[in-house]
Design goal:
The protein is α/β, with parallel strands linked by helices. It has three domains: 77 residues, Orthogonal Bundle (Arc Repressor Mutant, subunit A); 153 residues, Nucleotidyltransferase, domain 5 (2-Layer Sandwich); 189 residues, ATPase, nucleotide binding domain (Nucleotidyltransferase, domain 5, 2-Layer Sandwich), CATH 3.30.420.40. It is 43% helix and 17% strand. The protein has 15 helices and 16 strands. The protein has a five-stranded mixed β-sheet. Strands 14-13-12-15-16 form a five-stranded mixed β-sheet, sandwiched between helices. A hairpin with a 4-residue loop joins strand 8 and strand 9. Helix 10 packs across helix 11 and helix 10 packs across helix 12. It is globular. The N and C termini lie close together (10 Å). Bound molecules: zinc ion. The site of zinc ion has 6 residues, from loops. Zinc ion binds next to loops. Pfam families: MarR_2, ROK. Belongs to the ROK (NagC/XylR) family.
């Protein structure tokens, strides 16, 4: 936090902040309203035409907007030459989002508009491998992602940066994973190590909690996008939560808010990954369902395309049950059994629905959300748990009919956190477009055009603005 006293006269830093804010206003306007002329932008965002011209020139330089000829309109024919419209570009921007799960690493790359240009999942046992090997694996996968996008792109590619979603408590400022119970990581400087192994400058790497990134993705691009009060619940071995309240992520004083998986619901219940008893995670996490359904000690199944990698992982994790299956495969197995009418599986799903409803009722009493979105594996078992879980939720909430809160299934599935991480990097660019000019990553083979590099040299001597 900046405790310096504000001086009476505006400083150079103030001007820069205003300039950055104006760039953001223009970008957001074009992103939400669509193409507009310079004069139109000036009128609608309340800036002078000369200011808008300067801002647009800078955004054109950065390749974040482009000029297009105004399409002639039949109802308002205008004489003279057609006005030039500006629209959001950013096809050359690559925002990377990665997610580390208990059983896999996901890497997603998008352009500035959020269009996915790269997606890869790799089966990976992060708990077994440890944080250093995991950082190396994330670095390799991201290097490959950049190489692939650069190879396929007709123009230069500028990397906006990499956000990594971690299933646990993360110190966002320092990139330290404070506590990731299901990975058995504690106090590990993941951001610093990842920067070393990937040749990315540390400021280009952002770490965050997986559920918070997933909640951002749901809020922006999910089936309930724009719902200002929503709660996202991860459905994996671990259960995390991301809370959006009045359109803002609720992170708490350390960024540790939303750890709803560790609400204690049954003090005498099963042992949780965090070492305590009866946490919500120990009742509704995927392992709990597999245990109840009697599927936790099934033999290792044959694997598909990833057989070589996964077979190795299976050997290393022998005796740990079917953890080496992907979460999706294991949940699909439960659904298969339920469909076949297996009584033990159906009873396990009934128990699951009750605990989902009880926990959801607590959340509704505290946060009054419009919707609670169940992510990850819940998609596979939705038909058996949703109606009963909603009933239990309504019974447990003080407000009539739980205030109309819905229980819904994520449309983004296991991709949500990585998509949200990439969206976070896009937000960083829109909030401070000039950072693209500062950040050129020659080691990654993705420098901007010569003009941009010249600008970078000029700017790099200026002090960096603090990233929010
Ligand atoms: Zn716990």
């Amino acid at each position: 936090m900046n405790h310096r006293l504000a001086s009476a006269a505006p400083t150079r830093a103030d001007h820069r902040a205003v300039h950055r804010n104006n760039l953001e206003v223009v970008l957001r306007h074009l992103g939400t309203v669509g193409p507009d002329s310079r004069a139109g932008i000036a009128t609608r965002v309340g800036l002078t035409p000369s200011t808008v011209s300067r801002l647009v020139a800078e955004l054109l330089d950065l390749g974040l907007v482009r000029e297009v000829a105004d399409a002639p309109s039949s109802d308002t024919p205008r004489p003279g030459r057609p006005a030039i419209q500006l629209e959001l570009d950013g096809r050359h921007i690559l925002a990377l989002g990665a997610e580390i799960s208990v059983d896999r690493i996901t890497v997603i790359g998008t352009d500035l508009a959020g269009t996915v240009v790269y997606h890869r999942d790799r089966v990976f046992d992060a708990a077994r491998s440890g944080p250093e090997a995991t950082a190396a694996a994330v670095g390799r996968l991201c290097t490959r992602a950049v190489d692939t996008v650069v190879r396929k792109s007709p123009a230069h590619v500028t990397l906006a940066g990499l956000a990594v979603a971690v299933p646990g408590l993360v110190e966002v400022e320092t990139g330290v994973v404070t506590e990731a119970p299901n990975l058995s990581w504690r106090g590990f400087p993941f951001g610093k190590v990842l920067a070393e192994v990937s040749d990315l400058p540390p400021e280009a790497i952002v770490l965050g909690n997986d559920a918070n990134f997933a909640a951002l993705a749901e809020y922006r691009i999910g089936s309930r996008a724009g719902t200002p009060n929503l709660i996202y619940i991860t459905g994996e071995v671990g259960i995390g939560g991301g809370v959006i309240a009045a359109g803002q992520g609720l992170l708490g004083s350390h960024g540790h808010g939303g750890e709803i998986g560790h609400m204690k619901l049954d003090p005498k219940g099963a042992r949780c990954g965090c070492g305590r008893r009866g946490c919500w995670e120990a009742l509704i996490g995927l392992d709990a369902l597999l245990r109840e359904a009697g599927l936790d000690d099934e033999p290792t199944p044959p694997h598909g395309r990833r057989s070589t990698r996964t077979a190795g992982a299976a050997t290393r994790t022998a005796g740990r049950g079917p953890r080496q299956w992907s979460a999706s495969t294991r949940a699909a197995r439960v659904a298969e059994r339920a469909r076949a009418g297996d009584r033990r599986t159906l009873a396990a799903l009934e128990t699951l629905a009750r605990w989902v409803g009880i926990g959801a009722a607590n959340l509704v009493n505290i946060f009054d959300p419009q919707v609670i979105i169940l992510g990850g594996y819940f998609r596979h078992v939705a038909e058996w748990i949703l109606p009963a879980a909603r009933q239990v939720m309504v019974e447990g909430v003080l407000a009539p009919d739980a205030g109309g809160c819905e229980l819904a299934i994520s449309s983004l599935g296991f991709e949500a956190a990585a998509r949200g991480a990439a969206l976070h990097m896009i937000d960083q660019v829109i909030a401070d477009p000039a950072r693209l000019a500062v950040q050129a990553y020659p080691k990654w083979g993705v420098p901007g055009p010569a003009r941009q590099r010249d600008r970078a040299r000029r700017r790099v001597s200026e002090p960096r603005a603090a990233t929010p």
